[in-house]
């Protein structure tokens, strides 16, 4: 009887000992497994081409970075329900199967960065990761993010999307990320910051948008960013930024806007006013035009320096070339809307080229003759350069490669009525006062140009 009790006690002790001692015998080949501080499987830099199949079920951390993984399957981590940290960065992953992370409800950190062949992400790739607080997607070659990809990720605090090829972000991409504090979007190819791009980011603390191609920020783009403390927009293609855009940034402390080509005329007045109220730290905003203000800091100018408007063909050309390196604009609409004062538009600009509206003809036949002569397109290369140098409805003067067809195929009647030996009127760089611009604008008439051709011929005969 005593022997039976002794054997039973030893068996109980053995069972308890097995439960307490770390199990290392099921550790995958080429990996190292340990229990402290948390059950961990470390398989980094082992030349693995696939995720090991014998990962212990109780693992909480898995390190698979710097291997040669190409696919993350839906079954790769399906048994690891206790997983909190998963590192997959610096592999050759090009495809993540649907449901690859499904069931990992305890996952807090996921790093898929530095997988340059990934390029696309499934809209449901992160479904169910409600406790994830850090997500790395940097250097993945991503050109866009699918609608709803971050849906339900209410705990996310840090999102790394830098060093990709992102051209645009859909409205409400981050609408569920109310707890997001850091958003890294630098070194992408974003051109326009739209009104609803950052909607829902009510607790965002840091927004890095530098080294993109941003040339326009819509008026309500930062309306939800009342707690933002750091905003980096340096080294973009900005020339104008309105004070209305900046007004919601009540908590802003650090602002970097250097490396842009600022137009220091009437269009900069609202931003200049905003800086008078801003108490934080800011980089310099070096003026590009007009010439007499070139190199000066916009913030330090006087109010009188910002009167009138200037034409800046040299900026338009350089920015146009920068924009078209990555492709065409997707629309012929003017993204600037009505944010630019019409007093800052040249006389040859009332045609609203980007908005696709019909040409407007002035009641000055000689002036109209000169304007019409600018529409001749006999030399395609010369035409492209002239088009780039035209002053447009937006502050940049950048044109799309898919402009209104009427520009590429001018009306034959219009071309035949234009004297070929008439020299173009040179653009004046002298600032125009608001009164002069308004007076010029008041002379514009609506109606098809065909009604004014006889008047033009009369003026030509008189000259």
From TrEMBL:
<keyword id="KW-1003">Cell membrane</keyword>
<keyword id="KW-0732">Signal</keyword>
<feature type="region of interest" description="Disordered">
    <location>
        <begin position="354"/>
        <end position="440"/>
    </location>
</feature>
<dbReference type="InterPro" id="IPR050541">
    <property type="entry name" value="LRR_TM_domain-containing"/>
</dbReference>
<keyword id="KW-0675">Receptor</keyword>
<dbReference type="GO" id="GO:0042995">
    <property type="term" value="C:cell projection"/>
</dbReference>
<keyword id="KW-0449">Lipoprotein</keyword>
<dbReference type="GO" id="GO:0035025">
    <property type="term" value="P:positive regulation of Rho protein signal transduction"/>
</dbReference>
<keyword id="KW-0966">Cell projection</keyword>
<dbReference type="GO" id="GO:0009897">
    <property type="term" value="C:external side of plasma membrane"/>
</dbReference>
<protein>
    <submittedName>
        <fullName>Reticulon 4 receptor</fullName>
    </submittedName>
</protein>
<dbReference type="GO" id="GO:1905576">
    <property type="term" value="F:ganglioside GT1b binding"/>
</dbReference>
<keyword id="KW-0472">Membrane</keyword>
<feature type="signal peptide">
    <location>
        <begin position="1"/>
        <end position="26"/>
    </location>
</feature>
<feature type="compositionally biased region" description="Basic and acidic residues">
    <location>
        <begin position="366"/>
        <end position="387"/>
    </location>
</feature>
<dbReference type="GO" id="GO:0043204">
    <property type="term" value="C:perikaryon"/>
</dbReference>
<dbReference type="Pfam" id="PF13855">
    <property type="entry name" value="LRR_8"/>
</dbReference>
<dbReference type="InterPro" id="IPR001611">
    <property type="entry name" value="Leu-rich_rpt"/>
</dbReference>
<dbReference type="GO" id="GO:1905573">
    <property type="term" value="F:ganglioside GM1 binding"/>
</dbReference>
<comment type="similarity">
    <text>Belongs to the Nogo receptor family.</text>
</comment>
<keyword id="KW-0433">Leucine-rich repeat</keyword>
<feature type="compositionally biased region" description="Polar residues">
    <location>
        <begin position="354"/>
        <end position="365"/>
    </location>
</feature>
<feature type="compositionally biased region" description="Polar residues">
    <location>
        <begin position="388"/>
        <end position="404"/>
    </location>
</feature>
<dbReference type="InterPro" id="IPR032675">
    <property type="entry name" value="LRR_dom_sf"/>
</dbReference>
<keyword id="KW-0677">Repeat</keyword>
<feature type="compositionally biased region" description="Basic residues">
    <location>
        <begin position="421"/>
        <end position="430"/>
    </location>
</feature>
<dbReference type="GO" id="GO:0045121">
    <property type="term" value="C:membrane raft"/>
</dbReference>
<dbReference type="InterPro" id="IPR003591">
    <property type="entry name" value="Leu-rich_rpt_typical-subtyp"/>
</dbReference>
<keyword id="KW-0325">Glycoprotein</keyword>
